[in-house]
Amino acid sequence: MVGNITNEYGYINYSEEVLANIVGVSTMECYGVVGMASRNATDGFWELIRGGSYSKGVKISYKEDKLHIDLYIIVEYGTKISVIANNIIQRIRYNVENYTGLKVSSITVNVQGVRV
Predict the structure, then answer these.
(1) What range defines the domain where residue 75 resides?
(2) Mean pLDDT by 10 residues, the chain (116 residues)
(3) Contact by Cβ (8 Å): 60, 19
(4) Which residues, 6+ apart, have CB-to-CB distance to 24 below 8 Å?
């Protein structure tokens, strides 16, 4: 379990897969993102993930009540990468904190490629 919330009614535990799916869907809603990138460990190439497996381009770590998110994406050619990254960060922070109640400490957006 990555994150948990305790209140007078009980416990809520979030798995890494749930948080990664929230982050992946939030990322794909942003303009300029072509897809998530997954690193193939055997030959070191980055490949574009298509379909519904958006969580493969996301790494989540939860230490000392701090949520750290690393995101690997591929962007569209001709778009401004800094604007795309800022939009992604704002959307992920809002969605994760709004849906789960967990506070996001840091979000790192790694652009792994540009597609035409």
Answers:
(1) 3-115
(2) 79 88 91 80 53 77 87 91 95 94 92 85
(3) yes
(4) 36, 54, 55, 57, 58
From the CB of residue 13, how many other CB atoms can be counted at a distance below 10 Å?
11
Query: What pTM value is reported for the model?
Result: 0.84
The residue assigned the tokens 């190439």 is: 45
CATH number at residue 45: 3.30.70.1350
Report whether 27 contacts 108 (CB < 8 A): no
Which structure tokens are listed for 86? Answer: 């800022």
116 token code pair? 């035409």
Residue 81 has φ and ψ, to the nearest 5°, of -65, -40
| Residue 80 DSSP class | -
Would you say 83 and 45 are in contact if contact means Cβ atoms under 8 Å apart?
no
